[in-house]
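**Backbone description:**
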Amino acid sequence: MIKHRCKWSSSDPLYIKYHDEEWGVPKHDDAKHFEMILLEGAQAGLSWITVLRKREGYRRAFDDFDVKKVAAYDSVKHEKLRENPHIIRNRLKIASATRNARVFIDIQKEFGSFDAYIWQFVGGKPIINAFKELSDIPASTKESDAMSKDLIKRGMNFVGTTICYAYMQSAGMVNDHEMNCFRYKEV
């Protein structure tokens, strides 16, 4: 039997694995939230497949996405990261990871967890969309606009509304699988 997948998942095995196992699955683990915030910010201006191909490099370079360790990075660590060919070596994106980690920790302190904070933007449960075509899926929504505005106000960067919407998709806050995709009903 042929599995119908969202058209964006292409034929790349890495994309297919990500699509079939992660994308759109609701996440409630702060460590996973931090990983996705960091990776979505790194993706800005690039294709997601580029980030997926470097994901293991990011995992090693950023201490397995340990938010407390990343928050403590200094300029010496940033320069070492800029020399690492296994990640995207953009100076602003590297600095952003540390800045965003610090804000992430502040949010955890304020709300008890980042999860409690972030899910408020969708009323605590996933938004189930009913898109037939890839072209129907928006780049942003009023929810991602609100999330972006609040994260920026708190001091994060590389969290524009389009990045926030991609994050919402990856974190399962929205189900944007195309209706004919086998994952649509599973998620």
User: Anything to note?
Assistant: The domain at 13-186 is CATH 1.10.340.30 (Endonuclease III; domain 1).
